[in-house]
Write a structure and sequence with these properties.
Elements: E1 8-14, E2 17-24, H1 34-44, H2 46-53, E3 63-68, E4 77-83, H3 92-104, E5 114-121, E6 124-133, E7 136-143, E8 153-156, E9 163-166, E10 173-176, E11 179-182
Parallel strand pairs: 2-3, 4-5
Antiparallel strand pairs: 1-2, 3-4, 5-6, 6-7, 8-9, 10-11
Amino acid sequence: MKIKRMFTTVDTHMNGTPVRTVTGGLPYIPGKTVVEKTLYLEGNADWIRKMLIEGPRGNENQSGIILTEPCCSEADAGIIYVDGNGYENISTESIVGVSTVMIESGLVDIVEPYTYICLESKDGLIHIKVRVKDEIAKEVTFKNVEFVITEKVSGEVEFGGSEETVEEISGRAFITGMHTFTLDPEDSIQ
């Protein structure tokens, strides 16, 4: 049997979400930032995401993390979040999944009772604290990327045509009904 490409992955299941972490076998992903690395994959090597996440190896609920070299010296690893829709913003389940994989696969030096990990995502640094016992991740807590906005954001809901206020904001992504938009940190709020 001739194998053209082989990836190493570890599957975890977090809060009902299957998370596949790619730990090896990837080609070099160029880019000076995780954003550039993500854009490179999306534009030049999306077959990797499709092969790992879509059927027959995955399903519509499958999400994944591609580990890469960090671009920031503070980070232990760079991470690129992927799912069936593409390169979306990272989920809580994926942060817990990749942290568990990094501990239990020996990808970071383990210190008991707590190991600290810093991951670099396209949205910024994620600081993670993992409670470890006998080299097994028992609990994961983290401070996600900061979001700075002091205004309420309103949008028209898809059903009924009435104005509603978006109450839940995560990262830099706003999702209301079928409408999605992203704020850039350089944007000024008027």
